[in-house]
Specification:
The chain is built from 13 helices and 19 strands. The chain is of the alpha/beta class and 474 residues long. Helix 4 links the parallel strand 10 and strand 11. Helix 5 crosses helix 8, helix 8 packs parallel to helix 9 and helix 9 packs parallel to helix 11. The protein binds dihydropyrimidine-2,4(1H,3H)-dione and zinc ion (2 copies). The site of dihydropyrimidine-2,4(1H,3H)-dione has 9 residues, from loops.
């Protein structure tokens, strides 16, 4: 078995950073010890990584990606091969992607299709949530089966996108009841899609067709309202674990914070685009360029009633937002986003970012928004615990998978298609960002996959992770 020693680094966990050496045997962490403790083992090690002046963190876990998702008249442009490789470049060692079922489709077939797409293609480990876009007798039964037998224990429902993925309140309640009985987690896209569709039709009738109207027709109030409704329904269903995905609005955060104060199993994630970007600097750019940033929920304005960005950072500090994911759903401008020229409602919704989450959130540490420990917690440890993968994933400890990132805080990352960009898109949503900190080395189950700015992994190395239940329930 291959032995790797990572020495002289600062190992970061949810309680902070300590000087420790890490010994890896095969695919798992064998031991963590005081600096120099494994000096005798150094001779026998196949690889010695000197992490002096660097952080050693558990590999990033991105629990919200959409590789190859058919959506908006096209499909997300990253395959599992390109997307998982880009993730590895960014210090991510596990992705949890969303398998798809829509009206009239069979959940088991949808999941099988996702296994087919991913198997043999991933550079890093992967797991699945299941989108249930058509709640009916058959899909309700499948929720229990997938939870108990397939290692797929979380199900995404949509209050948005009528006619595409949308579930009404009755369907949501029934799915929540079933999930509550078998211990599954319900993930919710919380935007009031029925009301949004009215605003979209009215805007188009007024000739408002530019990308920025995507944001104006999806007001924060309608995210807050849907979040509230989802929380009420989860209570009626018996306090089923409810996880609000891609939260963008202070209005929604208030609802989650209140539910959590009341001791409820309600959790939330946000994404880097909502923490850093403003409507004015993205969607409202002249011409059609704003289409690059069309995603749902939309990027918001700092001139709303709530200062959403400040609220979201505070939510992250207070643990009302538990996780940062990316909602990686990349589309090229050419032939994809361009479908919406002259009609913003036809722009495929989604942004690519799986490669940049770790560095963008590390910038939050540098900026004083979150602590080093909270960075690791929100990007790795909590994702593992929230979705039943801990302590296999999300921690540097004996027996855990040796998914480890060596992070160089002295270097910078230049983001953009001509710099660091390995996603399959013809543009970067983060073009021009210069971020403090940089991935140095990435190990996936004990094997080095990124080393000195080179990808040394291989397609098919990544394995499917069967997940257990949420590990946070009250
Ligand atoms: N939002 C997006 O922007 N893209 C994919 C699906 C979603 O909910
Ligand atoms: Zn969504
Ligand atoms: Zn999504």
């Amino acid at each position: 078995m291959t032995r790797v020693l990572i020495k002289n680094g600062q190992v970061v966990s949810t309680t902070g950073a300590t000087s420790q050496d890490v010994l890896i045997d095969g695919e798992t962490i064998a031991a963590v010890g005081a600096p120099g403790f494994f000096a005798d083992a150094e001779q026998g090690a196949d690889t010695v990584i000197d992490a002096a002046g660097k952080y050693v963190i558990p590999g990033g876990i991105d629990v919200h990606t959409h590789m190859e998702l058919p959506f908006g008249g096209t499909a997300a442009i990253d395959t599992f091969e390109t997307g998982s490789r880009a993730a590895a470049w960014g210090g991510v060692t596990t992705i949890v992607d969303m398998a798809l079922q829509r009206y009239g489709e069979n959940v088991h077939q949808g999941l099988a299709e996702w296994h087919r797409k991913a198997e043999g293609n991933c550079a890093i480990d992967y797991a699945f949530h299941q989108i249930v876009g058509g709640v009916d007798e058959e899909s309700l039964k499948a929720i229990t089966y997938l939870t108990e037998s397939e290692g797929v224990t979380s199900f995404k429902l949509f209050m948005a996108y009528p006619g595409v993925f949308y579930s009404d309140d009755g369907q949501i309640l029934r799915a929540m009841q079933v999930a509550n009985d078998c211990g599954a987690t319900i993930m919710m896209h919380a935007e009031n899609g029925i009301a949004i569709d009215v605003l979209v039709q009215q805007a188009l009738a007024r000739g408002e067709t530019d990308p920025k109207y995507h944001s104006y027709t999806r007001p924060a109030d309608l995210e807050g309202e849907a979040t509230h409704r989802a929380i009420v329904l989860s209570k009626v269903a018996g306090n089923v674990p409810l996880y609000i995905v891609h939260m963008s609005a202070g209005d929604a955060l208030e609802e989650v914070a209140a539910a959590r104060d009341a001791g409820r199993n309600v959790f939330a994630e946000t994404c880097p685009q909502y923490l850093y970007m403003t409507l004015e600097e993205t969607l409202a750019k002249p011409g059609f360029e704003g289409a690059k940033w069309v995603c749902s929920p939309p990027i918001r304005s700092p001139h709303d009633e709530h200062h959403h960005q400040a609220d979201l950072w505070r939510g992250l500090r207070m643990n009302d937002i538990a996780i940062v994911s990316t909602d990686h759903c990349p589309f090229c401008m050419k032939d994809q986003k361009e479908l919406g020229i002259g009609d913003f409602s036809k722009i495929p919704n989604g942004m690519g970012g799986v490669e940049h989450r770790m560095e963008l959130l590390y910038q939050g540490v540098v900026n004083g928004e979150i602590s080093l420990a909270r960075w690791v917690e929100t990007c790795s440890t909590t994702p593992a615990r929230m979705f039943g993968m801990y302590p296999k994933k999300g921690i540097i400890a004996p027996g855990s998978d040796a998914d480890v990132v060596v992070w160089d805080p002295t270097k910078q990352t230049h983001i953009g298609i001509n710099g660091k960009h390995h996603m399959n898109m013809d543009h970067s949503s983060w073009e021009g960002y210069v971020i403090d900190g940089k991935v140095d080395t990435v190990l996936s189950r004990g094997t080095v996959v990124i080393e000195r700015d080179t990808y040394v992994g291989r397609k098919g190395w990544g394995q499917f992770v069967r997940r257990g239940l949420c590990q946070y329930l009250v």
